[in-house]
Design a protein that fits this description.
about 375 residues, globular, four-stranded mixed β-sheet, alpha+beta, about 50% helix, 11 helices
């Protein structure tokens, strides 16, 4: 990216993270997933070098940066073939929410560990019957003396097995109106009544997906993060970084696939010149590169708006960035596989598994159709269909 858009510090961070990514690469992550393990070595190295905590406030052991820097880290790891999905969840969502809205005690308890990688936190919002409609969340929290009691179910929650706790989105009753509003609770992994079961996924990844059950889970009063009345403000403080980081994940994956295809097209020779000389090969790769760069620009805009405190502006840009990055990633992966032909389906080249993986950014954490709904009525002012 041009130096007019990125500072020398950001360029240096990119180069340093890229070097770390090259040390591990795609085969490390694929092998870890095949063996049922977790990328602990890469996570520890990224933490030791300060990359995991780059967006955590300095007073809690972090780098004092923002989502701009954290998304840059994830993008470069992805471009090297070894993105860390839990970066989206632990420092980006949970770390940001706690840093912005947590009590002093919650910040002291969690932020240093999230920054140095010794602690991780999962995030639970999606439910079997709610899907993209967060207003239909049925996980409820009621007061019982000095405690909160949580009951409900969650689905497609990443990394719960390795997380020390899960930040659960529940709903509490508003004392004034009687209506339910979203609130966030820190639920320790070993809390009585907090159950989990693995979802059998076709997607091969080191980070497992879980269905969660909360059966009368009792939590102390200080498990509540932030103000009970803040509701959606606190929720979207975590969801906007999630969308930005998902865009970074997708852009990195697209860059990785495209680089593999370009290298192949430069060297693969069937007739008199390398296949990359043929426009039928070259032009689709060039178009994929353009789409990735455009998505990258929107991601940067979203991150800067968020870091500047413009939650409304960041919401629109983050959704657009996530949409654009998901589309660009799928197209880049598809074209890369086709460029390699039969080799694109071999384990040696490591692209075929990305056909499934690239779809994630189109589906999660919010579908592209829901983003189009958001843009149509929030940005364009069209009436809602639901």
């Amino acid at each position: 990216m041009s130096s007019t858009l990125e500072s020398k510090e950001h360029q240096a961070l990119r180069a340093a993270v890229a070097a770390l990514g090259q040390k591990y690469g795609r085969e490390y992550l694929a092998r870890t997933a095949r063996e049922g393990g977790h990328p602990d070595e890469l996570w520890a190295d990224a933490a030791r070098l300060g990359y995991l905590g780059v967006s955590i406030p300095e007073e809690y052991g972090g780098g004092g940066g923002g989502i701009t820097e954290l998304s840059l880290v994830l993008e470069e790891l992805g471009a090297a073939g070894c993105p860390l999905l839990m970066m989206v969840v632990s420092p980006a969502i949970c770390g940001t929410v706690i840093a912005r809205f947590g009590t002093d005690a919650q910040k002291r308890t969690w932020l240093p560990g999230l920054a140095d990688g010794t602690r991780t936190m999962a995030f639970g919002i999606t439910e079997p019957e709610a899907g993209s409609n967060s207003h239909r969340i049925t996980t409820t929290a009621r007061r019982d003396g000095d405690e909160w009691v949580l009951t409900g179910r969650k689905v497609f929650i990443s990394g719960v097995d390795i997380a020390d706790a899960t930040l659960i989105v529940g709903r509490t009753e508003d004392a004034k109106t009687g209506s339910l509003k979203p609130c966030l609770f820190i639920v320790p992994r070993d809390a009585p009544g907090f159950g989990r079961s693995v979802i059998d996924m076709e997607l091969q990844a080191a980070e497992k997906q879980f269905e969660l059950t909360l059966d009368e889970v009792r939590l102390p009063a200080d498990a509540l993060v932030g103000d009970e009345d803040a509701g959606l403000l606190q929720l979207f403080a975590g969801l906007n970084p999630e969308r930005i980081m998902t865009a970074a994940f997708a852009i990195g994956m697209g860059r990785y696939a495209l680089a593999k295809a370009v290298d192949y097209a430069r060297t693969r020779q069937v007739w008199k010149q390398p296949i990359g000389a043929h426009q039928a090969i070259a032009h689709p790769l060039a178009a994929a590169h353009i789409d990735l760069e455009l998505a990258r620009l929107m991601m940067r805009k979203a991150a800067q708006l968020y870091d500047a405190g413009d939650d409304m502006g960041a919401g629109e840009a983050a959704n657009m960035a996530k949409y654009a990055a998901g589309e660009a990633c799928v197209k880049a992966v598809d074209q890369s596989v086709h460029t390699l032909g039969g080799n694109g389906l071999t384990r040696e080249y490591g692209l075929a598994s990305l056909i499934t993986a690239s779809r994630v950014a189109r589906i999660a954490p919010v579908s592209r159709e829901m983003i189009l709904n958001f843009v149509s009525h929030q940005s364009l002012g069209l009436p809602k269909s639901y």
